[in-house]
Amino acid sequence: QVQLQESGPGLVKPSETLSLTCTVSGASITTDYYYWSWIRQSPEKGLEWIGYIDWRGEFYYDPSLKGRTTISRDTSKNQFTLQLRSVTPEDTAVYYCHLEGSDYWGQGTQVTVSS
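RE: above sequence
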């Protein structure tokens, strides 16, 4: 059983950087062919795929976020992290971490961008 748990601030000010961590248990983030992704959901935009980091540490981001995204990992802690820079209120959403191709999702964490 793989479990994922998001953590991070629930409130971020406009123009600052949103940082979230996903802690994984039940599987190693370096397991071959595992892709670990970040996805967000808002009433206005629905589900949006943000990007992933894979078992090798390689990553891919959705181009629509215009270079604001960094996904990194700490293999010693079995965690991967999302940073989204220069946030605006449009980045307000519930953020999820997810193991691609599986039914394993974090419970989601609400992030609100507001001054």
